[in-house]
Design goal:
The complex is a heterotrimer. By secondary structure, chain A is mainly α. Chain A has 11 helices and no strands. The radius of gyration of chain A is 26 Å and the shape is extended. Chain A starts with 15 loop residues before the first helix and ends with a helix. Chain B is mainly alpha-helical. By secondary structure, chain C is of the alpha/beta class. Chain C folds into 2 domains: 141 residues, P-loop containing nucleotide triphosphate hydrolases (Rossmann fold); 77 residues, no CATH class. Chain C is built from 9 helices and 10 strands. Chain C is globular and about 55 Å long. The chains are: A mainly alpha, B mainly alpha, C alpha/beta. Chains A and B meet through α1, α2, α3, α4 and α6 of A and α1, α2, α3, α5 and α6 of B.
Chain lengths: 264, 285, 256
């Protein structure tokens, strides 16, 4: 029962990448951690300071908040609405150009795709800072910044969806002699419409959150108020604002889920 | 001749209503913000002015000495934050997933039947709460406590990552094929055998790809956190913009883009390789 | 020996999967169970190794009572019972060898198995099992890269690695083509004859049952309606077991 008649195959060696990679990762983690400068003693003393934050945090000043933040909150929402609408609709044509399925021309494809990849690398707040510098403070900068933000995300999501659609109907349309434009409109667009709507709602939610943050750098909305209050450590005024924002986000999330279910 | 079927009215009406609502919202927002089409049309021009001010970027030694270390700081913050997120979210994910959660039995005399409390029920809620707070907000709250600097950013990113990774990982665990687990049980294996030989091999590739994706996102977040002083390159950008040193701002932007692009590329390639699994092995036929 | 004494199984939803089943299976028997889906075949198999507990009655396996066994004893019983499944239940991303080694988990310490340091003896048992189903050369191939028939053979090897006294096969060939199905059935028969392992196979293809069976059990709505030699079975008996006329889908046919 001990001798095998067939030969045991050779055990394949795991690729050397793993042997290199694992210790590298560990070393780099250790290195990064050190660079961040974690001082346990300092951390402990700092932790005792938490009352500066936690005490006012749990003592919300509701009336102040309602009085002073109602309008800015509406402004925040308006920025998100405009930006997501403009950004997503502008992204539509660009996405079709950025997908091999619907764009036979290599040049415009490369152009659009690189454009999308590039704008994706810039964080939303950076856009905010740039546009504030360009068009001065205020909600206009916020709208422009979030438009780029929405464009970037919708562009990526939509172009990847277009990449994955069934090319069959497109071929059929071309075979009947329609132009590329007509083909895209009649055969590709309907296929991705449900996805577009779902992405739009998702991006709208993201824009609401981002719009709050953009206010930090002066791009309008309730963020500016939060920033000023923060500097004075008035967390008692900030906490009700956070609650309002959470409430808005939850409501929008519910609506979004409902609409998504209806559409898909 | 048969009647040509009428297009269902409902569909058209819904589409019509939705379009009207959207247009109304757009106009309401635009007027509320005092943004006219005229203003919008001026935007590209203004943006172009900005971009041309950014270029040529400042590549002087002085500028680079200031900016490059900050760029790397963002990298360290993002990496450490992701590592923290990965390490803590892993066990939490198992406790949160319905099929691997821990349970306590409520004794029979309190209720008629055997009643179990599952850890997954409240763990999921906890994760949802943690997830709801964006990194910036967390950094906000931590700043007075942990002070200016990279630590605050790392904590904020780390904790938020635990929330998102925890939720995503628990969903992966819930989605596995239970068949291999049954086979291990049938051959006399223990629960931990089932976990290690049945669950882990199925979930690891996807979970690791989530860690990498999180790293990509955290990199952007860490760049941003600098704006409120939580470390990283954001601080530099806002300073340069405030002092209207646009060429240096351009440097910061370019440096950030290069960092993000390179990490995205490497991470993306790694993720694809992991999901695909090792290419078909030596033995074929 | 396996003995079912007045075994009934009622699932929480109210479904009565087995009704008052009485059955005795001697060591070394090759038993085939036929019946419609939902007739109770899978349930019967799973009460043998305690994956499903009888709601009434008792199952005895080699002298031990399933319902009265604690966790540790159940594990011991299960380690002596090998099981193969319709969907193979292999861990797809792992190698064939690692899959077979999970059959040795009951005798290897947790630490060693988790770290992947398997004792040489267990590895040898795994290799031998792979050789018995003639698939040793694929030991390091990823399980999902194999064909259906090969995967089922790995499943058999995994069960063999347990060095079991009983082999349970739950619709082992339902997802395989006719030729491969016969190959798998031949292996099961061979193992039963060479190693004397008591084998219970659930099938829904009647021609396969006739080709490979010795003793045939028929289940209908959770009740035992037929128990006899395969040579004695008539088409009328099959109709009785199924409660309807026999259809062509009840035969796997030949691969033309």
């Amino acid at each position: 029962m001990n001798k095998l008649s067939t030969k045991i195959p050779k055990k394949p060696y795991p690729s050397p990448l793993i042997y290199l990679g694992a210790p590298l990762v560990l070393l780099f983690t250790r290195f990064s951690f050190n660079k961040i400068g974690f001082d346990w003693e300092k951390f402990k003393t700092n932790l005792d300071n938490r009352h500066i934050v936690t005490d006012p945090l749990f003592d919300p000043k509701w009336s102040w908040a309602i009085e002073n933040t109602a309008l800015p909150l509406i402004e925040t929402i308006q920025i998100a609405i405009l930006a997501s609408l403009i950004g997503c609709f502008v992204a539509l044509p660009i996405s079709f150009f950025a997908s091999k399925t619907t764009n036979p021309s290599i040049y415009t494809f490369a152009l659009n795709k690189s454009f999308l990849n590039l704008i994706r690398t810039i964080p939303d707040l950076f856009w905010g800072m740039l546009f504030v510098a360009a068009v001065s403070q205020g909600p206009f900068a916020g709208v422009l910044a979030l438009t780029m933000f929405s464009l970037a995300i919708m562009g990526k999501l939509l172009s990847e969806t277009i990449d994955a659609i069934d090319p069959g109907p497109l071929e059929a349309a071309r075979a009947t002699g329609s132009s590329q434009q007509q083909t895209v409109f009649s055969s590709a667009l309907p296929q991705v419409m449900p996805n577009f709507i779902a992405y739009f709602l998702y991006i709208f939610e993201l824009c609401i959150r981002a719009s709050v943050i953009l206010g930090l750098v002066g791009a309008g909305g309730v963020g500016r108020i939060i920033e000023t209050q923060r500097i004075f450590l008035r967390f008692d005024r900030i906490s009700p604002i956070i609650v309002f924002i959470l409430a808005i986000v939850i409501v929008i999330e519910q609506v979004s889920v409902y609409v998504r279910r209806k559409v898909l | 001749m048969k009647d040509i079927p009428k297009k269902p009215i409902n569909q058209t009406i819904t589409k019509f209503i939705i379009s009207i609502v959207l247009i109304f919202l757009a106009i309401w927002s635009a007027s509320g913000l005092e943004i006219s089409l005229e203003r919008l049309s001026k935007a590209p021009q203004l943006t172009w002015t900005l971009i041309s001010a950014l270029y040529p970027i400042d590549l002087s030694q002085e500028a680079l000495d200031r900016i490059i270390p900050k760029v790397f700081e963002s990298l360290y913050i993002a990496w450490t934050g992701t590592v923290i997120g990965a390490i803590f979210s892993f066990p939490i994910a198992f406790i949160s997933a319905k099929n691997t959660s821990v349970s306590i039995k409520i004794p029979k005399f309190l209720t008629n039947k055997n009643y179990f409390i599952y850890s997954s029920q409240f763990m999921k809620q906890i994760l949802n709460i943690v997830r709801a707070f964006p990194e910036l907000l967390l950094a906000f709250v931590f700043l007075p406590i942990t002070g200016l600097g990279a630590l605050t950013g790392t904590l904020a990113i780390g904790i938020h990552s635990i929330g998102t990774l925890g939720k995503l990982s628990s969903e992966v665990i819930e989605g596995i094929d239970e068949g291999p687990l049954e086979a291990i049980k049938a051959s006399g294996g223990s629960k931990s055998n089932e976990l290690i030989f049945g669950v882990i091999p199925q979930v690891m590739p996807t979970i690791i790809s989530y860690w990498l994706y999180r790293f990509e996102i955290n990199l952007r977040a860490s760049a941003v956190l600098g704006v409120i002083g939580a470390g990283g390159v954001g601080q530099e950008l806002i300073n340069q913009l405030r002092f209207r040193a646009f060429d240096r701002a351009g440097t910061v932007l370019v440096a950030t883009i290069i960092l993000v692009l390179s990490i995205d590329t490497v991470s993306g390639a790694l993720r694809r390789r992991i999901i695909k699994g090792k290419s078909v092995t030596v033995e074929q036929n | 020996m396996i003995k079912f004494e007045n075994v009934s199984v009622t699932y929480p939803g109210g479904v009565e999967a087995l009704k008052n089943l009485n059955l005795e299976i001697k060591d070394g028997e090759f038993l085939i169970i036929v019946g419609l889906s939902g007739a109770g075949k899978s349930t019967l198999l799973r009460t043998t190794n305690g994956l499903v507990m009888p709601t009434e009655g008792e199952v005895h396996v080699d002298g031990q009572q399933i319902t009265k066994s604690n966790k540790k004893e159940l594990k011991q019983i299960r380690s002596r019972i090998g099981m193969i499944f319709q969907t193979f239940n292999l861990v797809n991303r792992t190698s064939v060898l690692k899959n077979v080694l999970t059959g040795r988990l009951h005798s290897v310490s947790v630490i060693r198995s988790t770290l992947g340091i398997w004792p040489q003896e267990d590895k040898n048992i795994a290799f031998k099992s792979l050789e018995q189903v003639e698939i040793l050369e694929k030991a390091y191939v990823r399980a999902s890269n194999l064909s259906g028939g090969q995967q089922q053979r790995v499943g058999i090897a995994r069960a063999l690695a347990q060095q079991p006294t009983v082999m349970l096969a739950d619709e082992p060939v339902a997802s395989l083509d006719p030729v491969t199905s016969r190959v798998v059935m031949k292996y099961l028969k061979k193992i039963n004859e060479d190693l004397g392992i008591t084998t219970i196979v659930n099938l829904h293809f009647l021609d396969l049952a006739k080709e490979f069976g010795e003793r045939l059990i028929g289940l209908k709505d959770g009740e035992l309606v037929y128990d006899g030699k395969i040579s004695d079975v008539t088409d009328k008996d099959f109709q009785n077991i199924y409660g309807r006329d026999i259809k062509s889908s009840d035969f796997i046919g030949d691969d033309e």
